[in-house]
Amino acid sequence: MEYISKYLLFIVALILTNSCTDEKTEDFKEVKATISLKLGDYTGTLSNPLIIKFTNLSGGFGQVFEKRVYKIEDIKLENLVPGQYIISVTGKLTQDEAMEIYGKQSSYVLNANLSNVEIYDYTEGKPIVVNIEESMESFLIFKEMYYCGSKTDSNSNYLYDKFFEIYNNSEEVIYLDSVCLANASHSGQVDYDFGEAAKDNLFSNEVWMIPGTGKDVPLEPGKSIVIAISATNHTTALSRLDLTSSDYETYVEKTSGTPLDYPATNMIAIYKTTTTKFWSLAYGGNGMILYKLDYPFDPNDIVLPSNALGSTKASVKIPKKAVLDAVDCIADESKYLDKKFPASIDAGFATVGAGWIAKSVARKIKETTPEGRIIFQDTNNSSEDFEVMDTPQIRRYLNN
Prior knowledge:
By secondary structure, this protein is mainly beta. The chain is built from 3 helices and 28 strands. A 7-stranded mixed sheet has the order 19-18-17-12-9-25-28. Strands 14, 15, 20, 21, 22, 23 and 24 form a 7-stranded antiparallel sheet that branches.
């Protein structure tokens, strides 16, 4: 009887082992997918490659591979690990292609970004449509962004040492008069729904503008400006950032309290819905927008999201066509659904990975001209264009 019981236990164990093995094999069975690229009505071949990046967030967490294609068509993929993917596309048109497709002989970059794309055996018969969007190549760009804050020597959170560096990535003088810096409206509880207005606009609840009447603020090619939250020497912060040489600061007029008004030129707070005595940027990242209007700023051109919370304030509209550069900064890579911009504005995101760690994101160098002018990478995909710096530094690589 004891022998029979042991035998039965062995058989049960063997069945369970085989069952688990079969289940594991089934979980990782390779699958196929069809990627259907769309660029409006265009179906031709491009001179520059489209780089398609696939990131598997479940079946093979962190598994990344790329594919380069030159034609707008359906792409057949095999031997994929099943799971949920992020699919991003980056590319660039020649001026002749831009003329053929859009009727303008200009510099266009191409981008697309899809999140939570299911690629399993049951999705094999359904093509994954990737609509590629175009945007004009910008020459005024974010060069370095320090948004996460630091700690003090006593381990308190410190948020006054943040800065943004803006760079002229072109070979011509750019005038900064009336250029605006803003953070995208966001909520930690809901995704704001701005309805039809979101088709042509971004939104912000705080906008700062560089003062000037037209041609008062020239920025030479290869030069930058630094905009600080507080343009002082932050000796009590672990970042030890000396921002006294900043060109501008976002000082909030007040009768008392910190930060103080330092010698740097004050930006103009043209739209502000908060009552804070400083520009209160989220330590976990903000969608940052650099833009310039070709008409006077209207503080009444505002909209309230349809799912507004009780404390939600109206946001000012920022036309997408006015955007010079935008970078989606998020808390960490797992928060990719917190992206605030469509692919035409930023197909990726930048992150330092955590708050209060005194790290920055800086744009990668693409090339240096024979004359010594640095050209920074700008594919309109911040995941590819930026890298994390352990020590924030203003005017990194530059002599201005």
